[in-house]
Amino acid sequence: MDIPPVAGLAKDMRYDGFLLVRAAEQRAASNGSRYLDMTLGDRTGEINAKLWDGAYAPPPAGSVVRVRGLVHEYNGRLQLRVERMRQAVETDKVVLEALVPCAPEPAEAMLAEVRKAVDAISRADLRALMHRLLDDAGEALSYFPAASKLHHAERSGLLHHMTGMLRMAGHYADEYPSLDRDLLSAGVIAHDLAKIGELNASTLGTVSDYTANGMLLGHLVLGVVHIDAVGRETGCDEEILMMLEHMVLSHHGLPEYGSPRPPMFPEAEVLHHLDVVDARIFEMNAALSKVRPGGFSERLWSLERKLYRRREPGQENGDTQA
């Protein structure tokens, strides 16, 4: 039986399949009976779900459950009335790509590309520092998103963002020989690594909240502190270490975006623009994928504008679905 995606659900449709738990809590009805109020979803969207049985404990956010129930309408919105539910098990062989957005390339391949870029760094001290930073990131780097929302908020999104920027950095270094290719590559790899300490993310790549360090310090400060400690431990040249720390600290560009210093040398400036371009193209593509050719997206608050999706040759205005 074909299981419709959440975005394809309609009133009176029966559902029997696997969904990701985005939120779940037990509540009390007006008559005192207990029930579960949940937000369930897949990569296409989410739906409110009710399970009117107080014997069920709330499944953890970020877990996968198999649910069976009926879609109905409540206060003008679709709702799933769950009849049966259980946690997914390994033998279910759930396809993660159907439940959560995933990077378009395997994490193993992207991580190998990043390691290769570190191996290509000619400075031994900087190369040793970068290998140590990747080692410290550990297994989390293979699944961590680059953000809780917006750009590269997907499983392995941090690696997706990193490899995309590394590829562009190579073109910049080819075009402008005055750039320090080693330093630029190191800055790309290091600039968002501290997201791993800033966000609470599951192995599915979904973010539940910020950590205390993330809320109080943020990934720019966390990144600089860690780079400084590891760089001094591994014996990295003090000037190179200072410049790498500046690149991390300044890669947001402006104080209103979180950087206490603007980029103050070419490699830092290029890193800032690589970060902006890679993030914005991702957000634009995501928004335009939901728009009919010849139409406009909703206003994106991160970009403060709407986006236009062009029509391909042979398409009539607005006649073709996205």
TrEMBL record:
Q: Which residues form the OB domain?
A: 30-86
The alphabetized UniProt keywords are: Hydrolase
The answer, when asked if Hydrolase is one of the entry's keywords, is yes
SUPFAM superfamilies (UniProt xref): HD-domain/PDEase-like, Nucleic acid-binding proteins
Q: Which InterPro entries match?
A: HD_domain, NA-bd_OB-fold, NA-bd_OB_tRNA, YhaM_exoribonuc/phosphodiest
GO terms assigned for molecular function: hydrolase activity; nucleic acid binding
One biological process GO term for this chain?
Answer: rRNA 3'-end processing
* Keyword field contains Magnesium: no
Q: Which domain of life is it from?
A: Bacteria
Task: List residues of the HD domain.
Answer: 159-279
Gene3D superfamilies hit by this protein: Hypothetical protein af1432, Nucleic acid-binding proteins
Annotated protein name in UniProt: HD domain-containing protein
Taxonomic source organism: Candidatus Avichristensenella intestinipullorum
